[in-house]
Amino acid sequence: MFRLLIGAIILCASPAFSDVWTFETPSENIQCSVGEELEFSDIRCTIIEKNGPPALPRPSSCHADWGHDFVMSNTGIVQMLCAPLSRNRDGYDRAEYGVTGKFGGFLCNSSKKGLECKNEDGHGFFLSRAVQRVF
């Protein structure tokens, strides 16, 4: 119950000047961090274990892990990062299934189907073990 309360507070908190929040899905397979400043915010989510093809084709210049890290700002398109995968599963507050949070220009919904986050422009991503997509 405490983790649910903390997760809800983190997802719905109002920023001071510059804040960073972290949360994960109950499976601990998707972890996100949100940075928020006065006029700008960004979110980075990592899916640790995934199946299927990546949401976007791997760039020829990418020689690290691909398809695990998704980044977007409060406006603009989603980017995927070519970066070594971190399998750290500690230190994140839990966003229980059924929790929707609006913060820093983002709306994220954690469900049993996966995690979906959208920005102010309507761009976003959906992440689950079986499917990863950007829109």
Structural features, described:
The termini are far apart. A hairpin with a 4-residue loop joins β2 (30-36) and β3 (41-47). The longest helix has 11 residues, at 2-12. This protein is mostly beta strands and 135 residues long. The radius of gyration is 14 Å and the shape is globular. The protein has one domain. Helix content is 8%, strand content 40%.
Ends: how far apart?
Answer: 33 Å
| Overall spatial form | globular
Secondary structure tally, helices? 1
What radius of gyration results from the CA coordinates?
Answer: 14 Å
Q: Tell me the β content.
A: 35-45%
Helical amount among residues, as a percent range? under 10%
Largest sheet, described in full?
6 strands, mixed
How many beta-strand runs? 11
Order of helices and strands: HEEEEEEEEEEE
Number of domains: 1
Keywords: Signal
Signal peptide: 1-18
InterPro entries: DUF6636
Protein name: CVNH domain-containing protein
Present the secondary structure layout:
Blueprint: H1 2-12, E1 19-24, E2 30-36, E3 41-47, E4 69-73, E5 79-81, E6 93-94, E7 99-103, E8 106-111, E9 114-119, E10 124-127, E11 132-134
Parallel strand pairs: 1-6
Antiparallel strand pairs: 1-2, 2-3, 3-4, 4-5, 7-8, 8-9, 9-10, 10-11
